[in-house]
Protein 1
Amino acid sequence: MLYAILCYNHEDVVCAWSKEEDAAVMEKLGVVQQRLAEEGRLGPVARLMPTTAATTLRKDREPPLVLDGPFAETKEQLLGFYVIDCESLDGALQVAQDLGKANPGGSYEIRPIAMFQPGPAGA
Amino acid sequence: MTDFGWIEGAIAAARPQAMAALLSYFRDMDAAEEAFQDACLRALKAWPKNGPPRDPTAWLIMVGRNAAIDAVRKTSRNAPLPPEELLSDLEDAEAEAAERLDSSHYRDDVLRLLFICCHPDLPATQQIALALRIVSGLSVREIARAFLVSEAAMEQRITRAKARIGVGGAPFEAPGPIERAERFAAVAAMIYLVFNEGYSASGKALEAKGGLCDEAIRLARLLLRLFPSEPEMMGLTALLLLQHSRSDARFGDDSTAILLDDQDRSLWSRRMIDEGLALIDKAMLKKAPGPYQVQAAIAALHARAARAEDTDWAGVDRLYATLEIMQPSPVVTLNRAVATAKVRGPDAALEMIEPLGARLDAYFHYHGARGAFLMQAGRTVEARKAFDRAIALAGTAAQAANIRQYLDTMATRV
């Protein structure tokens, strides 16, 4: 089963990291990613730009409404996501815990993936 | 899992919004600062034990308010404070109540807090110092270091600035659209000042002031998140990101400034450029151009050029022409002339800046640019005179060194 791990955290905290702090977290995450990649379980990984760069299309009306900002105004923001291959939710939780140790604070939402197209872009 | 670094980060990130809410509650800067300090102390005790709250900002506001109210009760009635364990138990309930705080109120609170710091009676340097102290929460020591003055002098400066603005007359009612736009413009200008204070530093000062650029970007992002549809705020944030993206390439090993054309573009921060380009892209969809957007668009043309010779100078020239109309100033015209020289040659540029001579006679960059145009036009004697004048006006050793490079180039050519 493929799982998406959606990474939520306080954007203003993460954006305030110094270059060195950011690099240190990325390095620690890289170790976990490397292991998953070697096991052939790592799918696409994306870090998203700050929500200030986001635009939302509300398509529940015609014509659709274009709004600035992320879809949901939440206390924590969706900052990135992983796609990983795991036997079970238990396995996905284990991966999320490993990632969490490398990057404390915030939350991960683990969501089973129904359909997956890696797509040629950025490959 | 709790991490001490994370707690400090969360407190620092929460500061502008928490201070803004506490100020609008107490309507007194010192009371707000004290309440915030108190809440931070409690957070440092409670969060490692109970884990960080879902919404640190709301937690700090609620606890700050309550702590101040407790303090008033304590002094007025001598009633004992609740024991520490009880306080920790209460905090979950407080956090829950805090969740209900309407975040839309924060927006105007934060804008007001920043606006108070850019009081027109305060000189620019004091506005910056005040904003860094109150909004960003930098210590007096850190600010003193950035301004290259003693801690005592900075302490005094901030105290005086605070006394001068008072808060008594500050407008606490929700602003109307026109007022909000005015506050926005003042605050955006102040954020740009903070950025420039860091960006214009060189040599030894660079190390002390470099952090100001990051701080300005943080403030710009904060405002943009609160007002996500303001195209000028998108423009300002993009402009700061695009300029700051070059910071690793701007100075050589001997800390002399490296001009844009000569910078190693592989040292530019791709991540900042991408974010800046995304923001300017988004702003342009609004079709409400303004000076920050135009300046960001100019920076974007530089960022998009993989090599200096790939720069769309005609585009830069056109954008400066737009900026000249929006914000006429001899300095803008001078900048435009640099682009004009690339597109139409040095004579066109010289013609363009000739009328500025009277107003910019004491301006280092005027004589520097004029010297460069004259040199390109082959008028070496006049060029040398202009460069000598520029060196006499140079504010920093790095500026003078740059002009000397030109003189050296001319000397080797002759």
Note: The two ends of chain A are 22 Å apart (CA to CA).
Protein 2
Amino acid sequence: MKNKKDNTTLLQIKDLKIEGFSDERWHKIIKGVNLQLKRGEVLGLIGESGAGKSTLGLAAMGYTQPGCRITGGQINFDGVDLSKRTDSEKRKYWGNRMTYVAQSAAASFNPAHRLINQTTESTIRAGLKKQSEAFDEARALYDALNLPNPETIGERYPHQVSGGQLQRIMTAMAMSPNPDLIVFDEPTTALDVTTQVEVLAAMRDIVKTYGTAAIYITHDLSVVAQMADRIKVLRYGEEVEEAVTRKMLKSPKEDYTKSLWSVRSIQKPEKKSKDIILEVKNVDAFYGSFHVLKNINIKLPLGRTVALVGESGSGKSTVARVITGLLEPKIGSVKFKNRELPPSLKGRTKDQLQKVQMIYQMADVAMNPKQTVYDIISRPASFFAGLTGANLRKRVIELLEQIDLDESFIDRYPSELSGGQKQRICIARALAANPEVVICDEVTSALDQIVQEGILKLLGRLQKDLNLSYIFITHDIATVKAISDEVVVMNEGEVVEQGLKSEIFSPPHPEYTELLLSSVPEMDPDWLTDLLKARSY
Amino acid sequence: MHPVIKTVLERLGLGLATLFFVSIIIFSAIEMLPGDFGQAILGQAALPETVAAFRQELGLDKPAYIRYFDWALGAIQGDLGTSFSGRNASGADRSAEVVDKIAPRLWNTLFLASMAALIAVPLSLILGILTALYRNSFFDRSVNTATLTTISFPEFFVAYILILFFASLNQIFPSLANVDPDTNFGERIYRTALPAFTLTLVIVAHMMRMTRAAIINLLASPYIQMAKLSGASQTEIILKHALPNAWAPIATVIAFNLAYLVVGVVVVEVVFVYPGVGQLMVDAVRTRDIPVVQGCALIFAVTYILLNLIADIIGIVTNPRLLHPK
């Protein structure tokens, strides 16, 4: 394949307007956006959820999701206005001259077909290559994307390879017809940081080699900084600003853009504490015969935050299950104020239950959708503190004030709340029990940056006011820096190291911590290049 | 051993265990039937000694568990015992082997069931796929309404309507489906046409709607959007991307309906005077011909278990996670 890069315009979107149908009416999703892309150029689209970046990315292919419609504007792709074409006309472009890489590779591959057949499906359908030729080229792409066993990995089914590998195979699938344009829709969001680095590098190399133009959609500025030549910031379906990557990172013009990396700016000074309120001692735990936790020792100082960091599968959420008694450890124990807690939830007294509360990642599913805010918060308040009637209502209002919401929220249902408000209600529910220890399991992972900042500040203030101790489970290093006093690094069910934040984040590091910390993308366009160079030595 | 073979063997084992329990239930249920065969045959006036002797001759005086094992061991070897009917007070014995009574009837039932299935299964799959393809269109709604209408009427009603239009007003098919072992194949098909159509109308809705729902359910999957964005046409998306992942629920519903074709067609048999197993069983219950009732019930149980086993196996072999383990 030859490099397609030259300076001609490939895609020009003019004053595009898209509406989506929900709640019995049409809502504006994209409100007149312009976009221009040259051959071989990579444009980063960034914004928070609801900014319309995915809708815009798909629209660049002339595709609208079911329930959406284009109400105005043009999508000129190589001289053809796709917004005026029928599906069967656009099908000639899809999977041929333009391809798509989706966020969740695991869900975006058909479980019933072999990977190589899916990789080459559109190439063969479009009649670009014969099957044997397409297969050979797919294997070459697998090799170029650093996949293990490139000759045979295509014979596997999607469930037989890992998430990071699937994401690279999807990139191979997008490259297979040698398209003019690839739309990457949050392709690394679902991956662990250490995996993300490899996938980013592979995607960047291959796009550069073939000179393919790309639109790279993400909410993560530091990721887009590695990939894009230019960055466009979107909010509420409108453009906020657009600039060349380096310029955008160095001097963003708009306040909104500046606020996008605000979480990274929170820096909490760490504090030591001698009093230990909770201790996990020599714990080994199993799921069936699978050894999830291996000799775990964690100490939680009173009034402080211990961050539990690790990638998916490292066992960090299982530690929370052991502490709350949802999973009985095989060996070892959990001590609260130097007294051993019964291993199982059933054996614990009301008082013991009250002291340790939990907040979850998905506020959406952690609340009963048929209960009002009052029902949700009042239940632990009446169960643990025995409040009733007017006292109970007073307490609920007090709790709402603590989380910066007012009385007007009391009769709302979860579906009438925003993502950040839902998480606040979950915090209030945990506080309603008057706990001393709160376990926060990825509580900000599903939230946008600005909302994250609000939640983290709230948790910090509550800690000060109520002298709470937090165990904060997260995979995000920026969040760790923003909230913790001490850090526990976990990998494959073991504690790699534990110590004050300043100790953990300053070298020398154990090998795994080094890998983890160095894999966190930085807001520097050269970060990935430098990292790969450093690692190749 | 390949895990699929292991799972299939496990299911087979479970099926046999189920059959064992069902046979116990069949046997005890019949034990609990009111009335006594001897008394019924010999009449109210019979002397108690005569009744006792008669019972002894039939083996009814032995304890229940011994009779169960005799019956179960025989059944395993293909011997379902001797029918009680054909005996009478005069002592003449014209009774027949249960197997000989059931076999020709079972053959008739299976013939009718196969005919109905051959029409209904492909028809429901095609309609299901087409309605999924043109969902919410006029075609989709008409097919849904039509199949729901036919399933909502009682079977005998559907049967009489068909007789009215296709046998009475227009004499295309016979209204009586009376066949005997000498009827040749073509004639058999001709005579069983109306009952087969009736059954088809009764079962199509269920299978067709399940096919439609199973496919539409998958159309919301990210991999379907991916297929669209790689240029696949609607037909290709449904046949190549949705259907291969939808077989498990479809197979279950098909198995359920096929089982119904074998065990639930008494009403249709009666309407068309078709000599099938259903009628045989009803007659046997009326005359307290216990071995025949047991034999029929056992065959019905085997049918259910076998068809569901096949549906399970289809579900397993169409699931790549089970077929191609990590």
Note: Residues 110 and 127 of chain B are 25 Å apart (CA to CA).
Protein 3
Amino acid sequence: MIHFMNISRRKFLGAAGAATAIGLAPKLGFAQTPKSGGDLVIAINGASTANSLDPRTFNSPYMAVLSGSVFSTLVEVDGPKAALQPGLALDWQESQNGLVWTFDLAPNAKFHDGRPVRSADVIFSLMSHIEEGSRSNSRAIIKAVDKIEADGDHRIVVTLKAPNYYFPASLSNYSLGIVPEGTTEFTGIGSGPYRVTNFVPGEILETERFDDYFKSGKAHVDTVTILAANDPSARINAIQSGQAHIAGNLDARAVTLLEALPTVDLVFQSGMGFAGFNMMLDRAPFDNALLRRAMKYAIDREDLIQRIYGGHARLGNDTPVPPDAGEYAAGVTQITYDPDRARDLFKQSGHSGPIVLQTSPAAGAAAVDAATLFREHASRAGIEIEVKREPADGYWGKIWAQTPFHGTIWGARPTVDMIMTVAYSSSSPANDTAFKNPEFDAALQVARGAPDAEERLQASHLAQRILNENGGAIIPAFQDTPEGVSKQLAGYVTGTMAIGSLHAAENVWFV
Amino acid sequence: MRHPLLSFVIQRFGSGLLSLVVVSVLVFIGTAMLPGDAAQAILGQDATPQALSELRQELGLNDPLYLRYWHWVAGALQGDMGMSFSSNRPVVDVLIPRLINSMILALSAAAIAIPLAIGLGIVAALNREKLLDRVISMVSMWLVSIPAFLKGYILIAIFATHLGWFPGLAIVRRGASLGDWANALALPVATLVFVTIAHTMRLTRTAILSVMASDYILMAEIKGLSPRRIVIRHALPNALSPILSISMLTIAFLMVGVVVVEAVFSYTGMGKLMVDAVAYRDLPLVQACGVCFSLVFILFNFTADFLSILVNPRLREPKA
């Protein structure tokens, strides 16, 4: 039915298409000057009635995009390479070999209530993430801080517990938005480009341009509205019907439909997030290194990328580092599908019988499809996988990091160091394969703290090699997530986070 | 002798109260039986053992089930529905706007669907076994046999995507005018009208036709009255009681049974709220939704029966 409609619409719009193309032509021209005005509508998932405007509680795409529109972080990232950009901190320098970091704050920055942004506000905001009972996803970042001191109203000096050259990058995390010192009632007072005029958790955010925004030449549209569109079809529906100008985290299966839309540009967000399969190292059967190796050769990654992600994904090598990341260890041989080798390794491992793989839509919309495909690949190597679909409810408590073989998903973290540390360092409570490897932990420390950049890079490569060879995670691919952007908009730059690195609101304008 | 209407009201009040208690116990036990608890649901992938135990303490999840139920009842009796676990706001603050949204959607749909369905039912009855009757029956059967969500998507495909007349997402902004509301609600209301119209239409038709089989109608026919007059003046009043019941139940259904339509149009009503609350194991909110839903059903059921008594003199008078 839908398909039929699509064809008829295309025919119908065929004549109109040519006319529209002429109308849109100016957009293709160079040296565009941003135009002011218009009401931007963004549709994104992850909204909930549980949401609050306390940045420490931000933990979903919806709240991340809200954060990028309403709040400012010290450091920002942008573009597909996640290049560091100044946020509230215009500049930063390290001293004592990466142990001490000095951040110079924008002197003209103001909060939405008119107060200036001072060092004290920044210190208050950052330190609040490690208050008792804080459930912030930036807790680990700030826990690495020994002390923060103000050097005047517009400079802070951060002393870390251990050297970390990734520290400025990690401050781009969207939950580290700066609020005025002493805030207890979180009403959305930040220093970002748009100020909140109406926020209904789980429904809608409405904002208007903040005239005293500290960056010049930004924030072109008059108002920004973020629609809660948790349902994948609701997001497609919103961008297709023109109700939203930008829709993020779209379904890979809808790519063909989106490509055919005359009013929408289809772009891809290339993040470090990934979905994979966890083999728990601390228990049978995957305490057996040969069996783990067999499984890694038993999955056809290229086929999975084609079938599950429609070709829009980058190859994974069982480390959380995608091939386009600066730290990617190209020297580590890519594991490829080799049923014969997998069969031999499986025999050598001494394991027999089927292996249960538990997964759920909680671990990604395509998690069950991916597991089923894995089963087919493995069966050609004589390895029998039994896919068990678990309910999404309670998946993170009962299955994930609990059962021997299960599906996992990790959202993008600001740095390679963070995802490696959170997911695989021995002391991390979220280490979901029970990977405990002192050599790996040591390599991570060097990779973030050695004064020499080349030494850091080599250590990161070593850590990736160890994970690739000994780790329990099968990471077949990094998805390029489709996003829809209305052809009425200009200035949109895709990034490693949804909705133009979360900052589309201040960057786009209507042509 | 007591007045039959009064005793009816008292009796129904009692049974309604009992139903509410039973529903609240069932919802409470049902939610508690689901895998995982509010602490796990809220923390998700960030659930470290320490964070879990802190949050459980904070939410009072360590108390035994009966004690938690008792606390809830004690609060509810004093009008305090508790705090929502997931949003940390009073349940009432979360619930009321959603309830209003649901009522707006349901009543708009009912205001169109019920008169339309009764009208069509009468037309079908007047033209029994003729072409018009067959067409009305066939189209309504057709509409009822398409699942609600598909009807919603078909309407979106035609009216939102292709024609661009109405928005595909029924999101109403603050300070929206009546026109904005009508525009936003057009498609979900249309979907709901299609969902409910067939039942009411067919029931009206059947009710009128069954009355039409009685002797006094034959008498009227022999007297030479026009079919229109017979149906409207003589048959309809006697068929009113089943029609009123189904209308009331239709409204009740529209208030509580439209989760799928809410999901298709991203409309923020009660149904979606309860689904989200269950996902978060937000017991106070689930409870409040459950009680609210059953209250709606009990009230409309009661109204339906009450109205049937009122319009039927035979039920109004005490039995001899």
Note: The domain at 102-268 of chain B is CATH 1.10.3720.10 (MetI-like fold).
